[in-house]
Design brief:
five-stranded antiparallel beta sheet, 299 residues, 39% helix, 2 domains, alpha/beta, Dipeptide-binding Protein, domain 3
Length: 299
């Protein structure tokens, strides 16, 4: 059995929370010898929101790699990146749960730790998920959602604008304006809406904030009355399943959201991938002299 210290973090309380979970000393407190990787980060992996598939995979990694001393810190995507920036600016060691696409890879020089036991699986794709009956009730909106597809580079552009201070809807509007050819492919064959109400849910990951605001802008431009609903992953999938949400473009499959696919089987329609080639794992700054999750285990 391994012990797991859970520390709930919000960006506003980040500094206090990290202090409560332990400091970031890099030398052995008793003899001044160079610290092990674990000692240098107080056996702490900075995570995101509880219940996320990435957090479940990391809990499994702790068990699979025999990291009994290690603690997974729960919080949010914003808290994780705040902790990363704080450590990176001081060139201090830190280990975070990470995924791509994410703006942090363009802002910081980072690397994934190798996962020789394959706990985090292969690259995933992001899927568009619609409620049952949407095709029949709102065929034009359905067609746009079904044809929505872009690249990590596209998404990264929107994420970077948001991280640099642009409001998500403004960043989305700018991207849509500058990519008319691609937007025409998404709307090809779809008729205009007439103010029909649509609710699109999303989780507060930088990637999903970008994609959801972009598809919402396109749907609004096509005449639909779109409401965005920010929730956690469970309610996002449950909303589509019970019909209170029309769709989301944030289904990470086949691993991250596998539990929700199983739980709500038959209660949603998978429209397929809207982005290929995502990745999950443990991430560290490149200045840290480690390459694999195996390096976290005490010698």
């Amino acid at each position: 059995m391994f012990k797991k210290l859970i520390c709930m973090i919000t960006p506003a309380l980040l500094a206090l929370s990290l202090t409560a979970c332990g400091g970031s000393g890099q030398t052995n407190a008793t003899n001044g010898a160079p610290a092990s990787v674990g000692e240098s980060v107080n056996y702490k992996i900075v995570g995101i929101d509880p219940g996320a598939g990435l957090m479940k995979a990391t809990t499994k990694a702790i068990d699979t790699y025999g990291l009994e001393k290690w603690n997974l810190v729960e919080g949010s995507g914003a808290a994780m990146t705040a902790a990363l920036k704080k450590a990176y600016d001081k060139k201090e060691p830190i280990i975070v749960t990470g995924w791509t696409p994410h703006w942090m890879f363009s802002k910081f020089d980072l690397k994934y730790l190798e996962d020789p036991k394959g706990v985090y699986g292969e690259a995933e794709n992001i899927h568009t998920i619609a409620r049952n009956g949407l095709k029949e009730e709102h065929p034009n909106a359905y067609k746009i959602l079904d044809q929505f597809h872009w690249t990590s580079e596209d998404m990264g552009t929107v994420m970077s604008m948001i991280e640099d201070g642009a409001a998500p809807d403004k960043a989305a509007a700018k991207w849509v304006e500058e990519h008319d050819d691609l937007v025409k492919k998404w709307t090809n064959g779809a008729g205009k809406g007439n103010g029909e109400k649509l609710t699109i849910a999303y989780v507060a990951w930088a990637s999903e904030i970008a994609s959801t605001n972009v598809i919402a802008k396109v749907l609004k431009d096509m005449g639909f009355d779109v409401t965005l609903r920010q929730v956690e992953a469970g309610p996002m999938w449950a909303g589509v399943a019970d019909g209170s949400v029309d769709a989301h473009v944030a289904g990470w499959l086949p691993i991250t959201h596998a539990d929700y696919v199983s739980k709500f089987k038959g209660k949603f329609e998978d429209l397929g991938t809207n982005l290929e080639g995502t990745k999950l794992g443990l991430v560290v700054p490149k200045y840290m002299d480690i390459t694999s999750i195996e390096d976290l285990k005490e010698k």
